[in-house]
Hints:
The protein has 8 helices and 3 strands, in the order αββαααααααβ.
Amino acid sequence: MIKRIFHLTIGLLFLLPTVVSFALAGEVIDGIVATVNRQPLFQSDWEEAICFEAFMQQKPIAQVTQADRLKALQRLIDRQLLQAQMGGETFLRPSQDDIDKDVAKLRAQVSNGADDRSWQKLLANYGLSPDTLKAQLQSEVRVMNFVEVRLRPNVHVQPEEIEAYYKSQLLPDLQKNGGKIVAVDEVEPRIRELLVQQRMDELLDAWLHNLRQQAEIHSTVAIPADNAVADHDPASGAE
């Protein structure tokens, strides 16, 4: 998967109720925590992103660390940068039916997920509502579709790369774990897709680095420096 931004994990477990103290305890003052090319990101945007990521990662809110919060803010900034690149491309937006299917998959993985009261209680434990969950999913999927459209055409996996992965990674793992040895032809499509996704992750890292360097970003919160090295726009097709 595209690891930097997206956490669409369809494998939730039922988590013990926790209290989203920063989202539910009294009135929240919705100040600006960052601006991206003069577009504001509000405290409520940040807190909702934290809740959404914790929910999707099966992580109780009580275990969310300051490092997790800062990573969520960086991903929120990155998403804003990518959304600015999309323009008005409406074909990238998932349909309501697609989002409803994603929600149904999530609910199928949750104990008592078919029960509306139990489902809403679980969401409330993360400071989310059904509508905010759908909005977050729609935004994430739209960005993911955009990244897919822009980056996948630039990735070309050669047969020798598949063969090398098969010999150096897959076979040793199968032998170590006592798995059945399979021919390279049987697993070629899966290996190819894995290598494509890895390459797309690298291109996305480089692209985001360049977008951050070119953008005017101000934050009231100190975010760890971007240490990625890139000197071209991967989405342009340059190698």
